[in-house]
Amino acid sequence: MPDTGVNEGVLKRIGEVFSTMPAEIRVHKRLATTLLQRREMLNMRMVSWALAEAFAFGTLLREGVHVRLSGQDVERGTFSHRHHILHDQNGVHAPVSALSDVFPGQAEYVVCNSSLSEYAVLGFEYGYSLENMRSLICWEAQFGDFTNNAQCVLDQYISSGEKKWGLNSRIVLLLPHGNEGMGPEHSSARPERFLQGCLDDEEGCPSVGKLAKPHFPMHQLLDCNWQIVNCSTPANYFHVLHRQVMLPVRKPLIVFTPKSLLRLKEAESPIDDMLPGTQFQRVITDNSVANPAAVKRLLICSGRVYYDLAARRAKQGLQNKIAIIRVEQLSPFPYDLLWMELRKFPNAKIVWTQEEHKNMGPYFYVKPRLCTLLMRMDDPRHWDIGYAGRGAAAACGHNINHKQQLERFLTAYFLPTTVIITFC
After folding, report:
1. Which end of the chain is more exposed for a tag (fewer CB within 10 A), N or C?
2. Cβ count near 235 (within 10 Å)
3. Could you tell me which residues come within 8 angstroms of residue 113 by beta carbon, excluding any fewer than 6 positions away?
4. What's the predicted TM-score (pTM) here?
5. ∠ CA 288-291-297, rounded to 5°
């Protein structure tokens, strides 16, 4: 897989421009505070999600790659974190594009708010990506569940266009996702629907010998119809965007992006994680465990729920008994890396956990593939893969129910027992 790290001087140049107020305009006072906070983070060599995205876009622009970002409220960002277009509060000067003049001779950067018509806009961007093969074309939903209104574009074109017509696309879908108590709408980007559209067979895990070969991940990408990732760190978000253009194959990329993690201190990344020699991590291991053989439970998760679990584990002092690993790339399924992780914790009960309800999220995609992998390994734990999380539901509840469910789930999971309880 390609090395997607970048020289620190390049990243610092992007960060300096991205955190500097243009001299010719007067920005909003709250935005001035945001820019100052970005500069402070750069001085501490830490990176937020907004900075990581700017690093990815700026790096590609420097390399001559055209970058285009469209969607509802993308200039500012739904959660007021991006601010790629800066407006003059005096109304005298034209808006300034924050990334359009970072390097001399860079490629064109286009960021534009679109109308509230996901079907029309996503269809246009997909067609644009077919004609601009070495560009990074991104469409961001205001909230992930807004893809409902573009479902026919996903089914008829993006997921199947290569198999039906030989059409290869690098289009990137950025879908804000997370059960955070916002109610039944604007919570889930419906990852289960995207995973159901993957063409891989749940019983198609290769032999252990093939998993050990270094070219296995690239062979997976060649065979897949799209990539699905749920990044839990800004560094991984940076790498997956950079990798999307550097890969020798053109495949659509579905990214479930964060909401509350955008400003969570624990979810920041050190700039070292983006320097040369680094790349996208399909699985993030748990390096905090001193003795893997002593671990009693191996918790496998994806996305923001990791931070809830890690905080509760630390609070109860269970770092040596419970290990947490993150599956950042859900599809193609990272059999090779999970094979190594499962071997590392031979005495641990394996449990999949997720923030989504049991009938949603990655559970029904991940469990049979974990089972098949364990069978290939002749590991008897394939009979006893646990689940920890919410029960089935038609939609998320309101904020009070959300908090109650989360607390019951975390409390039950970290009890000193091997019984895993599901809560509705």
Report:
1. C
2. 25
3. 70, 71, 72, 73, 74, 75
4. 0.94
5. 80
